[in-house]
């Protein structure tokens, strides 16, 4: 952090990562599904209540496994928000699936559950809610719709670790859920992820798909005498060094989350003033959701020019960001997906969203400095 430059993210290390990696190194345990992977699986199963947790290379890999597990066929439709990361859609497109983009809710940027039912056709196979910023989608309604129409639910819980909806952990509510441990998330291993298998009937095939389509996991447990090719799969499991790193993080996951929540609340309090001045609006956390402070974002007022705000912040050495380019307006999204209904909220809000620097341990002083800068900029920068 030279020149007083404030980065957007600063990956938190707990200090134990290298010890655990060294242990694996000295023991010669390098391939996947070693002792650290097992510990990570147990932690995830204990803290989410899922039936089976499986580490993957990434959340992307977890979603790709989900598409294989659901046996998505060419032409099958999958309902999802357009306001999301590319992997939500890409994982299903790889199997020939067609993403059907539905608009989002203004308060949470999450899939608008009130619009889902009208988007269902005889080809619909699954709904993929994305818990944006670690704030739960309206899962009760989504699960009821899925049940009524015999659809599967895959939660993109990439940002959702240790967050919950009505007391249930994000990622553990649908048939399947996927976490990300990418460097920019709350709990990290560089690249990394996990698939949470909540439907016990999918657990056995999930293991097979993750191990190149073989029953090697059962062989390792001594349940079969040899392992053979069972069905289409790939290599989705990370090596032990990644799991060793991740274990150091999972041990501290609650501490990391609590620390982030303190910083999140500090932003939230400081920004209340700007909301009353109608310069921006702050995120809304529904009563029944516990979030995990994955992200602090604001929605700039319509008369504020976001490009100018970003530019001025850069000038002040503050690295603020925006995302996502809605998938329905991207080249691949247009080619492989289709839109159901209007995308008014997605289109409008994706142009106004600004994400503020946030990491575990960001100093309150730095946050004050960021908010001071934003305050000055907002009163100057009009369209
Ligand atoms: C980060 C993220 C992903 C991708 O996670 P990887 O682990 O990098 O594959 C997918 N969906 C959402 C919503 C994300 O935020």
UniProtKB/TrEMBL annotation:
Source organism, top-level taxon: Bacteria
Modified residues (N6-(pyridoxal phosphate)lysine): 185
EC number per UniProt: 2.6.1.59
Keywords attached to this entry: Aminotransferase, Pyridoxal phosphate, Transferase
Any Gene Ontology biological process: polysaccharide biosynthetic process
InterPro entries: DegT/StrS_aminotransferase, PyrdxlP-dep_Trfase, PyrdxlP-dep_Trfase_major, WecE-like
Active site residues of this protein: 185 (proton acceptor)
Enzyme class: transferase
Pfam families: DegT_DnrJ_EryC1
Coiled coil: none
GO MF term set: dTDP-4-amino-4,6-dideoxygalactose transaminase activity; pyridoxal phosphate binding
Stated family: Belongs to the DegT/DnrJ/EryC1 family.
Listed name of the protein: dTDP-4-amino-4,6-dideoxygalactose transaminase
Origin species: Spartinivicinus marinus
């Amino acid at each position: 952090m030279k020149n007083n430059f404030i980065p957007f993210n600063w990956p938190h290390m707990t200090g134990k990562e290298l010890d655990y990696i060294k242990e694996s190194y000295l023991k010669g345990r390098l391939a996947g599904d070693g002792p650290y992977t097992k510990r990570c699986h147990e932690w995830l199963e204990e803290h989410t209540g899922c039936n089976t947790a499986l580490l993957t290379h990434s959340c992307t890999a977890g979603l790709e496994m989900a598409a294989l597990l659901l046996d998505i066929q060419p032409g099958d439709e999958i309902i999802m928000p357009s306001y999301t990361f590319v992997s939500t859609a890409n994982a299903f497109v790889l199997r020939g699936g067609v993403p059907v983009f539905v608009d989002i809710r203004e308060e949470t940027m999450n899939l608008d559950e009130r619009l889902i039912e009208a988007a269902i056709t005889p080809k619909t196979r699954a709904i993929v809610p994305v818990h944006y910023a670690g704030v739960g989608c309206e899962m009760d309604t989504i699960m009821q719709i899925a049940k009524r129409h015999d659809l599967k639910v895959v939660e993109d819980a990439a940002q959702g670790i240790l967050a919950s909806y009505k007391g249930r952990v994000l990622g553990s509510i649908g048939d399947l859920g996927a976490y990300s441990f990418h460097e920019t998330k709350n709990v990290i291993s560089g690249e990394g992820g996990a698939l949470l298998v909540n439907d016990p009937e999918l657990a056995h095939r999930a293991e097979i798909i993750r191990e190149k389509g073989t029953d090697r996991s059962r062989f390792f447990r001594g349940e079969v005498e040899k392992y053979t090719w069972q069905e289409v799969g790939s290599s989705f499991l990370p090596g032990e060094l990644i799991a060793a790193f991740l274990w150091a993080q999972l041990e501290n996951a609650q501490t990391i989350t609590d620390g982030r929540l303190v910083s999140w609340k500090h932003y939230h309090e400081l920004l209340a003033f700007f909301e009353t001045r109608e310069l921006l609006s702050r995120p809304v956390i529904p009563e029944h959701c516990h979030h995990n402070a994955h992200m602090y974002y604001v929605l700039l007022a319509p008369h504020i020019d976001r490009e100018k705000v970003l530019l001025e912040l850069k000038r002040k050495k503050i690295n603020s960001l925006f995302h996502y380019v809605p998938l329905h307006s991207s080249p691949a999204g247009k080619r492989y997906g289709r839109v159901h209904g209007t995308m008014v909220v997605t289109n409008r809000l994706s142009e106004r969203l600004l994400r503020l620097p946030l990491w575990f341990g960001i100093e309150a002083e730095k946050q004050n400095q960021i908010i001071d800068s934003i305050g000055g900029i907002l009163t100057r920068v009009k369209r």
